[in-house]
């Protein structure tokens, strides 16, 4: 089930079948200043949830029993043009993480991670996603 | 002497007689024939290779030619009219021959000349072997041919004995007999193989020790039996034994592998080679059959194959196990470390005692993670999957980086560190990331296992003899006795340090050794107990990257490529400062391009997203994510997907280049950088970026 942790700012979804990881990331992101954080331990809910809530970023585990992170990305890929979202893969397997980049992940982090690194990475991905959304403004120094 | 005139007739005399008759032309042909006959007889009589002895009808020698003189050592005068040939023959043989002839012909023959000439006197052609005795008493084997000489009425008037020295033949025969005998003994004594001779029909005619051992039959049990005895009943029923022989007879040789039967009915797996034996006329005389019992060999081979397969499987299983174990361990560790981090920074903050406990959890957790990473590292190296990018690396900058990385640890421990001055530039051909890994490992060991307030000093020197650069890390720790030094480079061997409360995995040095060796280097240690240790490694030295001295004027092509609208941006993702410096110099010539740089893939991607450069230049072997991974991220991002990314890598193998092009690089340039190639690629990439500019959102 998804739980909503409320208020404005970028919308983030945490997907991990391990409750401990979900809690850890929720706390971390909240402390990092992100207020609109939701989470689910069931990967099958990701696409419907995204259609409903239009997340800016999804933190995605790769190894999950019901549906793997790869399958989640395939589903997202179909609706991503209309409903763009940045995907940060979190995995203990570096080979899988690399493969995830091909399947649509924007970035990845290894497990275990330093909490400060997660906050930094999420922040920077949201920043560049904001660029993406904005009108073409290629930086050109004069 | 009575009897006919001596047969000795000098040739000259015969010529004279022929000469008298020459007056008549009618007689010319006859004279010619006589001359010829005389010459022939003369040749025979004077031959030194045959002994020609003529006797009268009683056997008394009348003629004794040169050959006889030479062979027997008598002169003609010694024997003519004096003795019979029986007196120069072995008396025992003469007696034996007389006895044998008496039996053969059913009449009594007295030992003596009769024994030698009796057959010839009866008109029977006679050639026999006997031993002649020389004047000096020595003997030699001879073959003698005896012919009776008859007059016009066919009455015997004497005998001609022509003899040849048989020593050489005898010798050869003996040698052959000896060879045959040794060969027979050898064949018989062979016990590993059954060597069996068969007659043309397949009956056993000889049997050796090996045959007895393998098949269980004793020689006297098997001689004369058919070799089909050795085949399983089913094969015999199908006529296989006959077919096998037939095949050998046709092809000369036939090899077979299959089940054969022993005397006791048990089976063995055999290799059999039949060879047809033919005489000089090509008639089949029989077969040689060589049989090997392969049962044992097959067993050994099966065991070896199984063992090899098992070892390979175990090795694969080990790699897989280590790899999956390290991933499995990371997940729970993530929770442990994660929540400990949360607690550490909680509000309200933990009490000092709680804080102490949290720090213990975190230290142990990060240590465990380090251990897992090193095991995985070692497994990767040992499986041969580690890729190396060898290129010129300037040690000065690298040492500076290592210094700043290790300095905090050294300060906490109160260890003073000294690094070489940067005025002696050493350059090695190696993988930058990996040297750093080795050096950090040696440095952290030197700090951790030092005494309080100790020193660590790093030095570089050129080993001109080996063409290598040596880097030494000297500490003032306890030092190691020789017996412990040899254990240093073994995995998990911490030499008792595990009891001293010092963290460490015992894998670091093993990994370092493997890495240095992969870079064509050597690593070693010298130590003095009570004084400290010197760890060193050597890497192949390299010429430093040559930097273009000054800014040269722009070429026409470069000028044409200048963008009138303004400055273009090139992002260079590279961890090696030497390469960066080179590109900086090159770009310094271009008034139209500004250079940004990032030292690893992640930072490169971030910078690309924020600054959107026109062209990206990407090293492949980067710390953290590789250049290829970074490229994939850039390609997957709508904002950066259009930017041409040029690979610049020391991986110059065709396979690497192909892999790079498949990954989607715009161009693939190899190090060392060729300035003109680089400039060309840059111009093409800039032009491409310009064309595609309008298509971007």
Topology:
The complex is a heterodimer of chains A (about 140) and B (about 700).
Chain A: E1 3-4, E2 11-15, H1 19-31, E3 36-40, H2 46-53, E4 57-61, H3 69-80, E5 86-91, H4 94-102, E6 107-110, H5 115-133
Parallel strand pairs in A: 2-3, 2-4, 4-5, 5-6
Antiparallel strand pairs in A: 1-3
Helix pairs in contact in A: 2-3
Chain B: H1 11-20, H2 28-45, E1 51-56, E2 61-64, H3 66-72, H4 76-79, H5 91-105, H6 113-121, E3 126-133, E4 139-150, E5 156-165, H7 167-189, E6 193-198, E7 204-207, H8 209-215, H9 219-222, H10 233-237, H11 240-251, E8 253-261, E9 267-278, E10 284-293, H12 295-344, H13 352-382, E11 391-394, H14 395-413, E12 416-418, E13 427-430, H15 432-448, E14 455-463, E15 468-475, H16 482-485, H17 508-518, E16 522-528, E17 532-540, H18 556-561, E18 568-573, H19 577-588, E19 593-598, H20 601-611, E20 615-618, H21 627-636, E21 645-649, H22 654-663, E22 667-670, H23 675-693
Parallel strand pairs in B: 12-14, 18-19, 18-20, 20-21, 21-22
Antiparallel strand pairs in B: 1-2, 1-5, 3-4, 4-5, 6-7, 6-10, 8-9, 9-10, 11-13, 14-15, 15-17, 16-17
Descriptive notes:
The complex is a heterodimer of chains A (142) and B (697). Chain A has 142 residues and is an alpha/beta fold. Chain A is built from five helices and six strands; from the N terminus they run E-E-H-E-H-E-H-E-H-E-H. Chain A has helices at 19-31, 46-53, 69-80, 94-102, 115-133; strands at 3-4, 11-15, 36-40, 57-61, 86-91, 107-110. In chain A, strands 1-3-2-4-5-6 form a six-stranded mixed β-sheet, with helices on both faces. The longest helix of chain A has 19 residues, at 115-133. With 697 residues, chain B is of the alpha+beta class. Chain B has 23 helices and 22 strands. In chain B, strands 2-1-5-4-3 form a five-stranded antiparallel β-sheet, sandwiched between helices. In chain B, strand 20, helix 21 (627-636) and strand 21 (645-649) form a beta-alpha-beta unit. In chain B, helix 14 packs parallel to helix 15, helix 15 packs antiparallel against helix 17 (508-518) and helix 20 (601-611) runs parallel beside helix 21. The longest helix of chain B has 50 residues, at 295-344. Residues 1-19 and 550-560 of chain B have low confidence and may be disordered. The interface between A and B is large, with 34 and 37 residues.
């Amino acid at each position: 089930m998804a739980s909503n942790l409320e208020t404005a700012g970028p919308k983030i979804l945490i997907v991990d079948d391990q409750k401990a990881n979900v809690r850890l990331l929720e706390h971390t992101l909240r402390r990092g200043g992100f207020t609109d954080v939701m989470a689910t331990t069931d990967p099958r809910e990701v696409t419907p949830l995204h259609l409903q809530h239009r997340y800016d970023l999804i933190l995605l585990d790769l190894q999950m029993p019901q549906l793997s992170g790869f399958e989640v990305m395939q589903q997202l890929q179909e609706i991503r043009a209309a409903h763009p979202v940045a995907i940060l893969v979190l995995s203990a397997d570096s080979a899988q993480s690399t493969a995830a980049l091909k399947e649509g992940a924007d970035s990845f982090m290894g497990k275990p991670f330093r909490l400060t690194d997660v906050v930094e990475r999420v922040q920077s991905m949201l920043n560049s996603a904001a660029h993406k959304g904005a009108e073409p403004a290629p930086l050109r120094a004069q | 002497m009575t009897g006919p005139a001596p047969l000795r007739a000098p040739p000259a005399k015969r010529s004279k007689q022929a000469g008298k008759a020459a007056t008549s032309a009618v007689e010319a042909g006859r004279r010619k024939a006589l001359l010829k006959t005389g010459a022939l007889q003369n040749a025979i009589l004077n031959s030194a290779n045959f002994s020609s002895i003529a006797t009268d009808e009683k056997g008394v020698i009348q003629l004794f030619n040169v050959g006889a003189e030479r062979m027997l050592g008598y002169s003609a005068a010694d024997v003519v009219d004096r003795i019979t040939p029986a007196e120069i023959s072995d008396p025992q043989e003469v007696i034996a021959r007389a006895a044998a002839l008496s039996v053969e012909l059913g009449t009594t023959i007295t030992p003596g000349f009769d024994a030698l000439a009796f057959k010839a006197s009866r008109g029977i052609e006679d050639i026999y072997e006997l031993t002649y005795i020389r004047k000096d008493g020595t003997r030699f084997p001879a073959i003698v041919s005896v012919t009776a000489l008859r007059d016009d009425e066919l009455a015997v008037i004497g005998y001609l004995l022509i003899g040849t020295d048989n020593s050489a033949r005898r010798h050869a025969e003996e040698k052959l007999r000896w060879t045959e005998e040794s060969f027979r003994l050898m064949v018989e004594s062979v016990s590993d193989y059954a060597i069996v001779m068969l007659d043309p029909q397949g009956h056993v005619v000889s049997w050796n020790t090996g045959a007895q051992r393998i098949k269980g039959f004793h020689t006297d049990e098997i001689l004369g039996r058919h070799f089909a005895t050795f085949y399983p009943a089913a094969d015999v029923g199908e006529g296989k034994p006959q077919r096998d022989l037939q095949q050998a007879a046709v092809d000369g040789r036939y090899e077979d592998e299959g089940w054969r039967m022993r005397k006791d009915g048990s089976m063995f797996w055999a290799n059999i080679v039949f060879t047809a034996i033919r005489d000089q006329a090509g008639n089949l005389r029989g077969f040689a059959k060589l049989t090997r019992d392969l049962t044992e060999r097959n067993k050994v081979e099966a065991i070896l194959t199984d063992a090899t397969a098992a070892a390979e499987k175990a090795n694969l299983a080990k790699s897989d196990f280590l790899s999956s174990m390290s991933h499995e361990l990371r997940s729970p560790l993530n929770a442990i470390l994660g929540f400990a981090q949360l607690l550490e920074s909680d509000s309200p903050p933990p009490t000092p005692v709680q804080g102490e406990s949290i720090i213990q959890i975190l230290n142990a957790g990060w240590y465990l993670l380090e251990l897992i990473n090193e095991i995985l590292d070692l497994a990767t190296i040992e499986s041969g999957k580690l890729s190396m990018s060898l290129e010129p690396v300037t040690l000065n900058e690298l040492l500076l980086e290592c210094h700043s990385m290790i300095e905090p640890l050294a300060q906490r421990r109160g260890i003073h560190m000294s690094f070489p001055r940067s005025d002696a530039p050493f350059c090695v051909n190696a993988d930058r990331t990996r040297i750093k890994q080795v050096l950090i490992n040696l440095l952290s060991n030197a700090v951790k296992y030092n005494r309080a307030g100790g020193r660590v000093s790093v030095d570089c020197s050129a080993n001109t003899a080996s063409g290598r650069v040596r880097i030494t890390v000297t500490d003032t720790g306890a030092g190691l006795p020789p017996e412990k030094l040899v254990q240093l480079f073994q995995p998990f061997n911490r030499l008792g340090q595990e009891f001293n409360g010092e963290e460490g995995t015992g894998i670091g040095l093993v990994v370092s050794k493997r890495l240095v060796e992969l870079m064509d280097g050597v690593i070693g240690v010298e130590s003095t107990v009570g004084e400290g240790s010197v760890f060193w490694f050597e890497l192949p030295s390299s010429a430093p990257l040559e930097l273009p001295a000054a800014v040269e004027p722009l070429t026409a092509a470069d000028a044409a490529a200048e963008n009138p609208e303004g400055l273009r941006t090139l992002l260079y993702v590279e961890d090696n400062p030497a390469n960066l410096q080179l590109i900086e110099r090159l770009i310094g010539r271009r008034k139209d391009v500004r250079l940004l740089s990032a030292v690893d893939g992640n930072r490169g991607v971030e910078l690309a997203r924020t600054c959107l450069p026109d062209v990206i230049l990407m090293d492949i072997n980067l710390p953290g994510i590789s250049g290829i991974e970074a490229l994939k991220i850039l390609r997957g991002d709508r904002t950066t997907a259009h930017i041409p990314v040029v690979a610049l890598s020391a991986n110059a193998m065709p396979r690497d280049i192909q892999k790079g092009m498949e990954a989607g690089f715009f161009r693939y340039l190899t190090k060392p950088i060729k300035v003109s190639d680089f400039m060309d690629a840059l111009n093409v990439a800039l032009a491409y970026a310009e064309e595609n500019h309008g298509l971007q959102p």
